[in-house]
Amino acid sequence: MKDNPTAFNSDSYEEKIGKTLPYYDEFYKQIVDVVRLYQSTSLTWLDVGCGTGKMAEMALGKIDMEQFVLCDCSEQMLQTAKMRLAGKNTVFRLSSVQELEYKEVFDVVTAVQVHHYLQKEERQRAIRNCYQALKAGGWSV
Which residues fall within 8 angstroms of residue 89, CB to CB, at 6 or more apart? Predict the structure, then answer.
């Protein structure tokens, strides 16, 4: 039985996605590099559809982070992320991107490999929610 919307269960996600998407690690590395390049202050970051916490793992320690919020609709993916990031400056939220209610809270919002799981109307709401979560001058990837 699947435990999340992706093609792979949370316990094997990293291994299988790495074989499916040859540049999987590079996606995250490049995003972290761009954020580091333009960072001027300690950041608040929201990663929507955080999965196993790969983005946070790559960003924490390389970027001055006030807070990193990881959001996913799969409880099992969040549990994996929590184990991966134990003791880090993180907050975990069990929620779909369509249910987000943040308003101008984050400097950075990422949603990597998330919106393609949604239908057109759901995707429009998800994108609107991501942009509403950004502070003025923030950016979304």
Answer: 60, 65, 66, 67, 68
